[in-house]
Structure formats: structure tokens, C-alpha cells
Specification:
This protein is mainly β. The chain is built from one helix and eight strands. The strands form two sheets. A five-stranded mixed sheet has the order 1-8-7-4-5, with no helix packed on it. Strands 2-3-6 form a three-stranded antiparallel sheet, with no helix packed on it.
Length: 120
């Protein structure tokens, strides 16, 4: 009788579905700091996006959202978490506020910030 009960329990356990849920490691998201070297640049000049507060050697992407186009650039942050990206103003629309969004990634960590400039 005992052996029959043991076999019955083992059979029942082997037929019971078992679900395992894998939870991915949570990605760390933080903020960074971005500023412009010149916030009101004249046409045909250059302004530089300065980024800090990201992970050392993080991949940094900037996107300048002009009135009719978006200009995206990439660079790698220094080991101290700083980066600079130059934008030539050319014939950007005078008086139109250009927002520059910044995203940096390293491993599962992401940093986001933004800044802006207005061509004159």
C-alpha cells in the first residue's frame, strides 16, 4: 500500500506543470547634465553640446531637432563621464528654438537629458 501511494504521488507530481518566470535584471535609468557652449549662436557658426554625469566610456547620442530636420551624432564619453559634440549652425531658422536631446548608454544603464539653443 505504501509503495502504491509513493508511486501515485510521484506520478501526480511528474504530471503537474511547473512554471518558472525569469525576471530580467532591471536597467538603471538616470539623468545627466547637458549645456550649450553658445545658447544663441549666429548662423554659420558652431556651438558645442557639453554632456556630463554619464558613465565612463558610455555611448552618447545627441539629436538636434531643427525646424525641418533632426541631426543626430554619436560619440563616446571620457572615462570621467563627459562628452562634447559640435554642431555647425549653417542656415538654421533664426529664432527657432532647437532642442538637443541626449541619451547615453553603458551596459544596462541609461542616462537622458536635454538642452537647447536658438539661432540668431
Amino acid at each position: 500500500m505504501r509503495r502504491a501511494l509513493t508511486v501515485a504521488i510521484a506520478t501526480a507530481l511528474s504530471l503537474t506543470p511547473v512554471a518558472f518566470t525569469a525576471t530580467p535584471a532591471s536597467a538603471a535609468t538616470g539623468s545627466c547634465t547637458a549645456s550649450m557652449s553658445v545658447t544663441a549662436p549666429a548662423q554659420y557658426t558652431t556651438t558645442v553640446v557639453r554632456v556630463s554625469g554619464v558613465g565612463g566610456s558610455a555611448k552618447v547620442t545627441t539629436a538636434a531637432h531643427y525646424k525641418t530636420t533632426t541631426n543626430q551624432k554619436q560619440t563616446t564619453a571620457s572615462t570621467t563621464g563627459k562628452a562634447s559634440v559640435a554642431y555647425s549652425i549653417s542656415r538654421a531658422t533664426k529664432g527657432y528654438k532647437v532642442v538637443v536631446s541626449v541619451s547615453a548608454t553603458k551596459g544596462t544603464s541609461t542616462w537622458k537629458c536635454s538642452t537647447s539653443f536658438t539661432p540668431r
